[in-house]
Request: fold
Amino acid sequence: MIRFNQNAVDIDPAAETQRITDFLRTNVRSGMKRRGAVVGISGGIDSAVVLALSVRAFGAANVTAVMMPDCDSDPLSERLARELAARYGVEPLLEDITEALVGFDCYRRRDGAIRRVFPEYDAAKGYKAKIVLPPDLLEAGTFNVYSVTIVAPDGREETRPLGPKEMLEITAASNLKQRSRMSVLYYHAEARQFAVIGTSNKNEHAQGFFVKHGDGGVDIQAIAHLYKTQVYQLSRHLGVPVDIQRRTPTTDTYSAACDQQEFFFRLPFSTLDPIWYARENRIPVPEVALSMGMPEVQVQRVFDDIEGKQRTTEYLRLSPPMLDAAKPMYA
Amino acid sequence: MDMKIPIEAAIRSFISSNLLYSDEGFPYDDDASLLRERIIDSLGVVELAAFLGQRFGVRVEQAEVRPENFDSVARLAAFVRRKQDAVVRPEAAEAV
Reply:
């Protein structure tokens, strides 16, 4: 019988590292007939762990690490990505995707939608923007409805709800970033006969916090089975630079600073992951609440939020449906 | 005039045409959970909020976009009636 406690998601990092590197080698070399790995590195914990695992699996000479900032990216991301690549003996490539995104009209389309909510918003004058969900999932059973927050040049912040048209346009324009990065990664993979290694963790993959054919467009998923807190456990074992381990997980997609909690997950991973584990293993709500020191109603809210996100993002994980062969007319 | 049927019918019609993309109308009870039945996602909630404003002239505050008000046709209709009552009788706003 499974007994639940807050350490339920703890893993043996050495054994899991071995399992993942075997999985990568077998599938990439024997299955895909590819020689090595291309990894997009962002200066965040997930791509750091995947780079470390890829170097263990294929050797540094067979791993290409690509940094792909745009004009909205935090300069800290590139600094940390360079530190990471140096740690594992990989020479990082810098591919600034800003001009590609200008060509796609990404910024004009996105900012036009933001201006319909905040007419004063002007990136050229120093305004910044981000998209957020209602804070604190535990305290309120609200829907996952996005708002836009702008930060004026003097630092004042204001948040307003997004209408459906604006929400769709901002999302579609922003997703051009991840899809541009996917194209760049596949350029480098095809030019070297390498495979693109995915960097999404379980929280992102299963709850739909990724862009279809963007960061979800990869040849193999290295850590999509790991809760975020398990990724941190691996990062310590693999010796990921401490500055990356300590960095707050960020979307690094919008011009205003925006962490993953306010953008999508709505509560800390240290709370989310054990509760998610409990739900997957059918641990009764009262037992989870007792162990986590939380009211049952809050545990149930987290259960419901996980279920809702998994359900409403199934489309993202769906392969294109296709029919069986057509019936020959004269058969 | 009893507005009960028109409000529910209008909501069902909107969901059917704009969220279910269905040729079969709205094949659920008015009490069916729109989330649990996979009828709406977060975008659908936003679209519903916009629809309530346009169709019934009610202003939906972000704090009101909650399952208690939005998770079934019956709850949506009740929410609209409370909002409309609050316009006619401001003291009823306390109940919204």
Q: What stands out?
A: Chain A is about 50% helix and 10% strand.
